[in-house]
Amino acid sequence: MNSRRFAAHHVVADGCMLSPGVVELVNGQVERYYKLECELPYTEWMDGTIEVVDDAEGRRVALLNGTKQL
What is the pTM of this model? Predict the structure, then answer.
């Protein structure tokens, strides 16, 4: 299982914005997202906005600044 945690100043998901926010991925798919309340270990900070969207196969993925899939 490949698990990663990303944080950004803005996370947009399901019509709401979390500032700052965290997105957790498991095997490249969004497992969960939430507002950042405290510093978390093993979190990769990204510059910009992370958007949670559904890809062509219906999987929840995270895009950095609208283009790069995390």
Answer: 0.92
* φ, ψ of residue 13 in degrees (nearest 5): -155, 135
Q: Let me know: does 32 contact 24? Beta carbons within 8 Å.
A: yes
Q: CA 32 from chain center: how many Å?
A: 8
Q: Are 56 and 45 in contact (CB under 8 A)?
A: no
Q: Which DSSP category does 41 fall into?
A: T
Taking only the tens place, the pLDDT of each residue in 20-61 is 999 999 999 999 999 999 999 999 999 999 999 999 999 999
Three-state DSSP state, 62: strand
Cα–Cα distance, 8 to 24 (Å, whole number): 12
pLDDT tens-place string over residues 52-68: 999 999 999 999 999 99
